[in-house]
Structure formats: structure tokens, C-alpha cells
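Check my protein:
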Amino acid sequence: MKVARKKIAAPRVAIQGELGAFSHEAAERMQAGCRVVPCARSLEVFERLDDHSVDLAVIPIENSLAGSVLEHFDLLLAREVFVQREFRLRIVHNLVAVPGVKFAEIRRVYSHPVALEQCREFFRLHPKIEPVSFYDTAGSVKRIMAENLRDSAAIASKRAAEVYGGRILKAGVEDNKQNFTRFFLVRKPVRQQRQILARANKTSIAFSVKNLPGALFKALSVFALRDISLAKIESRPVKGHPWEYVFYVDLLCGPTKEADNALRHLAEITDFAKVLGVYPGA
């Protein structure tokens, strides 16, 4: 007698933006077979994690050209979530139009302001084409397709063109080919799987110190004394407390004895310290 196997549901992964956004591509690369749930705002992504309407979330945290996504640092600190994985996606901007539209017909191009900024050379070479800011790269493709805008195009990913049936007129219109975005795979805190922690070699933390001479030096020395390297440090203002800051730090270490001792030491000498994630680095 055959026993029917229970079908495992595809994990639901929230992203900020429309289907076809770069976060969509990152989600599919990080969590194969997932069901992507688009959200209008970053806050909604974290709210969906809180109410368990999704299992995971994929958020961009840093771009190699544009810098950090500051809102996401704030949300990681404010919410009870845990970074499980890191992924770097090569960002390729494509000029996407309605099928049948020729390049000579294009008069304006819609996209997210950051994407437009990363394609300045394209607009310099084509001064008759007007860049128009839009809320989302994939959303710009969705719009030109839904409204059949035959004098317009969008700058977006190849995935966005596939999702909405657009045609790529020009591929790789970004100025700098060393354009990467670092994404985090985030979930509610759970007991980490042993195999994930065994492969972990990065730790992300946040902490604040009193505004006293040497306070930051003392905080960072807990890692230097144990030969733990820092990959990144960034400060963000504390809301409601002018001129006070939270420091976000990426450590090049996993869950080692030295790291545990350093974090315990850090908690003793700072106002607060929080581990945002322990995960395999990209």
C-alpha cells in the first residue's frame, strides 16, 4: 500500500516592490521554489513577518555604488528578526519597452531614482530622452505595459521584462558594471539549523555607546583584542534622541568562542548591543 507523501508548501517570501524587481530575482536565487509576495513598503515586509503571513523576507541592505539602504537598518534594529543568509546580486539595468516599439520612438524613460542615477551616461548620450522618477523599477515596466505607452520605456531587470511581457531594447545601460546589491534573507528568530551555523562566517550586530571620550574605541577593541576583523561599520541617528547614534557592524566571524566572549564583553560596556544575524557570507 502506497503512503501519500505530504506536499511541502513553497515558502512565502516578502519583498519590497513589484514582481520583477531585483529583490524578486534575489529571492528566487536565495530560496529556490519560493512564492514571492510583493509589498508596497518596506514596513509592510516586516509587518508580514510579524503576523506570519510570510515565512521569510528578502531585503536589499547595501549597493556597491549607492551605499546602504538606511531604512532597512532601522527596521532590522526595531523588529525581532534574524538575518539568515547574505547574497550579492549583479545589477544589470535594461531599457524595456512595449513589444513593437522602436528605440527612435522613445521620448521618456521611467524608473526608480537610484536606477536613473546609475544610468547617467545613457541619458547624456540621448539628450532627447527624459528620465522620469517612478516608485519602483519593475513597477515602471508594469505601467508602460498596462497603459501601452509607446513613446516611453522603463529601466529595470530582465526579470521584470519577463514578468510583464516587455521587450528589452538595450541591455546593460548602467554606467558602472561593478554594480552589486547585497541582500539579506530575514526571518523571525528560530532555533538555527545546525548546518547553517556550521557554515556561518559573518555576524551583523548593532550597539550604542555613551558620548564619552574613548567609548567607541573601547567598544571596537573587544574585537581587536580577539583578532576579529570588521567588514563594515556604519552609524545611524537614534530617533527621538538628537546627536545619539547606533553603530552597525559586520564581523568576519561565525559563532566561535572568541566571538561569544567579544559579544559578552561588548554588552558590558555599551548602552545596548543586539545581534542582527549570524550567517554564511556571500
Q: What stands out?
A: The chain has three domains: 12-88+179-187, 94-170, 194-279. The two ends are 46 Å apart (CA to CA).
